[in-house]
Amino acid sequence: MFDALTDRLSGVFEGLTGKGALSEKDVSSALREIRVALLEADVALDVVKKFIEEIKPKAVGESVIRSVKPGQQVIKIVNDGLVEMLGGNEDAKGLRIDNIPAVIMMAGLQGSGKTTTTGKLARRLKTQERKKVLIASLDVYRPAAMQQLKILAEQVGVDALPIVEGQLPADIAKRAVNAAKLGGYDVVILDTAGRTTLDEQMMSEAARVAEISNPAETILVADALTGQDAVETARRFNERLKLTGLILTRMDGDGRGGAALSMRAVTGLPIKFLGTGEKSDGLEVFDAHRIAGRILGQGDVVSLVEKAAAEMDEEKTKRMAEKMAKGVFDLDDLAEQFKQMERMGGLGGLMGMMPGAKKAKQAMDAQGLDDRVMKRQHGIIMSMTAKERAKPALLNASRKKRIAAGAGVHVSEVNKVLKMHQQMAGMMKKMGKGGMKQMAKAMGA
Ligand code: GDP
């Protein structure tokens, strides 16, 4: 599916993991190669740019996980970026069929694989979701298309709406919905007529069908082999039809696959399925993690890094808990908390487990501590010497001035960090051993 891209990337990754330490130059040149590989795979330029921009600071500024190589960490970062580009976890899987009968409208250019995909979906809904399915062809221009759908229905064992000559697409849609209601169908799939190019008549006809049938899903079927044209088709259809998702066909071909990678980012629409063959079972649920894994071919590395990162967080949490039990919470600990929070995209591991966490979070919110502020505060702490971090009492006016200059902030910002540290240290102390017990329990110890 993405063979050429996978080959290119595996070369880049070999170079990265072959080295023990990575310089900024190593990472930059690897990212340059990844950029070229994606462009060669026909991924849209804007999408590639955004992807590289997003992963670069992470790859360059990666925090060190001792048990894995830096190159492996970069692979994980590239993987996560790719998953994000493909829609991450947020996509609803499968089709929305809450209200019965649910209408699924299929749109797309002629030859994109619309009719074949209609058959595939019908089969899937019937065999895997035990739905009663009715399919209807709205292609009044090509009697052969209507026949094709009828034969498909027989093959996959669902009902097709009887063909009535001379009806308009909108009338057929109405008849299909009525028949579905009367016949107790769960789902009715409307296979609309396509043209070989985007034209106004096709669009307005499809819009009319949508108006009449009020689809739960309006799916664009696009041929992945047509590359950037498929992306443009999706964009144009979406302007007129309020699409709810995409299905990319011919993913079994040896095309460059870039369309599939750009689609989501360009249109903002979820890719729901991939067509992977001419037969009615050639349909695959789209899963961003699985596709990223397939493209990178580095599944083992990714899970290794995930595991190591989780272990590291746990180890640090334990170490900090031990310190806290003794009533110690220095600026290094605060810096670590900032970092953990950034990694976890929210309240840090340690704090999340503690009874006082809510209060601490409130204190942070009260000071307007969002991610950006947190990064700045982390920067301030990093401008201190190790001695100062371990013993904040050392921080007199001249030291504060030096730190502020180093971090490029006003002295008042340094004071803010110190105040926050004091508040948190006080809170941690209060929790003392009682907090420890709670935490040990939360960690399953
Ligand atoms: P429509 O005009 O959009 O309805 O397109 P069809 O469903 O008639 O498909 C056009 C051609 O593409 C047919 O020969 C299908 O067998 C083929 N096709 C559809 N989907 C796929 C797919 O996922 N993989 C492959 N290899 N061929 C497909």
Automatic annotation (TrEMBL):
**InterPro entries in the record, alphabetically?**
AAA+_ATPase, P-loop_NTPase, Signal_recog_part_SRP54_M_sf, Signal_recog_particl_SRP54_hlx, Signal_recog_particle_SRP54_M, SRP, SRP/SRP_N, SRP54
Query: Which of this chain's residues are annotated to bind GTP?
Result: 108-115, 191-195, 249-252
- Domain named SRP54-type proteins GTP-binding is located at 270-283
Compartments annotated for it: namely: Cell inner membrane; Cytoplasm
**Enzyme Commission (EC) number:** 3.6.5.4
Q: What is its main location?
A: membrane
Q: Which domain of life is it from?
A: Bacteria
Catalytic activity reads:
GTP + H2O = GDP + phosphate + H(+)
This protein's UniProt keywords: Cytoplasm, GTP-binding, Hydrolase, Nucleotide-binding, Ribonucleoprotein, RNA-binding, Signal recognition particle
HAMAP family in the record: SRP54
Q: Which PANTHER family match?
A: SIGNAL RECOGNITION PARTICLE 54K PROTEIN SRP54, SIGNAL RECOGNITION PARTICLE SUBUNIT SRP54
Which family does the UniProt entry place this protein in? Belongs to the GTP-binding SRP family. SRP54 subfamily.
Domain statement: Composed of three domains: the N-terminal N domain, which is responsible for interactions with the ribosome, the central G domain, which binds GTP, and the C-terminal M domain, which binds the RNA and the signal sequence of the RNC.
**Quaternary structure and interacting proteins, as annotated:** Part of the signal recognition particle protein translocation system, which is composed of SRP and FtsY. SRP is a ribonucleoprotein composed of Ffh and a 4.5S RNA molecule.
Name of this chain's protein? Signal recognition particle protein
Gene behind the chain: ffh
